[in-house]
Specification:
Blueprint: H1 5-32, H2 47-73, H3 76-82, H4 85-116, H5 118-122, H6 126-151, H7 158-170, H8 184-199, H9 207-213, H10 229-233
Membrane topology: Multi-pass membrane protein
Pfam families: Nitrate_red_gam
Protein name: Respiratory nitrate reductase subunit
Length: about 230
């Protein structure tokens, strides 16, 4: 089967364009626009919907993210030492499916809250709408991949998808060729996932870095605070 130029671009070059923008763009924004490095919370409005949607979305998306990270990037010898390829695939479908449903319900609640409340909508930027739409579509596609995987459609192979993701990290030559013949839902899911990395530095998603960086609070030195009480007593 021939490899069209657009396929080579989308799955061979685009991953490195997106990841370069992700890391370099985040660094530049932190260096030049630190005061925009925030989640722009609207927690004072419709607290109940925000609490429900945020809890479901963040719980689900964290499981999905770390599940993808570990499930696809764990070296094959370690995976085979722990479980069979079939068990690996079933764990990915079950855990990813349940977490994906949680995240999809959560982001739907958050989107409804943002789009229907005039006060929240008036403070909504174009980038906020773009992020909501991309994340919602990505979660729907992720759940569709579970359905496609259960049906074992022609061209589908969980091991091939794992090899492709690992090939991006290891700079494997001809890595895009692995996705030739793979069902469209997996290709679109991969492309949209890479697009999230591409737009990441230009949206409120950058606050995710701060969440990971908060771990360093556990090991930082104690902060010394001096009060004026003693000096006033003198």
């Amino acid at each position: 089967m021939t490899d069209p130029w657009w396929h080579q671009f989308l799955f061979g070059f685009y991953p490195y364009i997106a990841l370069t923008m992700f890391f370099v763009g985040s660094l530049v924004r932190f260096e030049r626009e630190q005061y925009t490095w925030e989640s722009d919370s609207s927690q004072l409005l419709r607290k109940r919907q925000l609490r429900l949607g945020s809890m479901l979305f963040h719980l689900g998306v964290l499981v999905v993210f770390f599940g993808h990270l570990v499930g696809f990037l764990m070296p094959e010898p370690i995976v085979l030492a722990l479980m069979s390829p079939h068990v690996h695939e079933m764990m990915a479908m079950v855990a990813g499916g349940v977490a994906g449903v949680f995240a999809l319900i959560g982001i739907t609640v958050l989107a409804y809250r943002r789009f229907t409340d005039p006060r929240i909508w008036s403070n909504t930027r174009t980038s906020d709408v773009l992020v909501l739409v991309i994340l919602w579509l990505q979660l729907v596609l992720g759940l569709l991949t579970v359905v496609f995987s259960l049906n074992k459609l022609p061209g589908y192979s969980f091991e091939v998808l794992v090899q492709y993701v690992q090939g991006i990290v290891t700079f494997r030559p001809g890595n895009a060729d692995l996705l030739i013949g793979v069902p469209w839902v997996y290709q679109v899911h991969i492309f949209l996932g890479l697009t999230i990395f591409l737009v990441f530095p230009f949206t409120r998603l950058v606050h995710i870095w701060s969440g990971f960086a908060s771990v360093f609070y556990l090991i930082r030195p104690y902060q010394i605070v001096r009060t004026r009480r003693r000096s006033l007593e003198r």
